[in-house]
Amino acid sequence: MDALVYLLSLGFSGSDAPRAAILLLIGALFVTHRFKPWRMTLLLIVIDLAWPFIAMAREGASPAMVNAAIRGALEFPEDAVVGFVVRASGFYLFIRGTFSIRRKLQSAFPDDQSKPGLLPF
Fold first, then answer.
1. DSSP assignment of the chain, as one string?
2. Mind listing the pLDDT tens digit for each residue in 13-25?
3. Does the model's pTM come out above 0.85?
């Protein structure tokens, strides 16, 4: 159990969990049959990786400072790779789950609302 808690803490630490929640909730709204969940996951991972550097630039950090932060982030320690895989898997599972729930809810109601006796409740 301790190993599972450790793996989840690598992927979703306390400081970036709100950012991940915002990205997931907004991203889950735009998944369709044509824009598959794995594509949205890739888009959200790219946004999630770029977010800290964009925030640094917006807050007035010098370009040299932002470049140094990017270079430091590219030197992945082993734990960061595991955390990235856990984070990407969590993103995919959340988006896929919300897409499935949304699809089931939308298919529960009839398409033709003109007939009054067809509502499921």
1. -HHHHHHHHHHS-TTTHHHHHHHHHHHHTT--SSS-HHHHHHHHHHHHHHHHHHHHHHTT--HHHHHHHHHHHHS--HHHHHHHHHHHHHHHHHHHHHHHHHHHHHHHS-S-TTSGGG---
2. 667 778 888 888 8
3. no
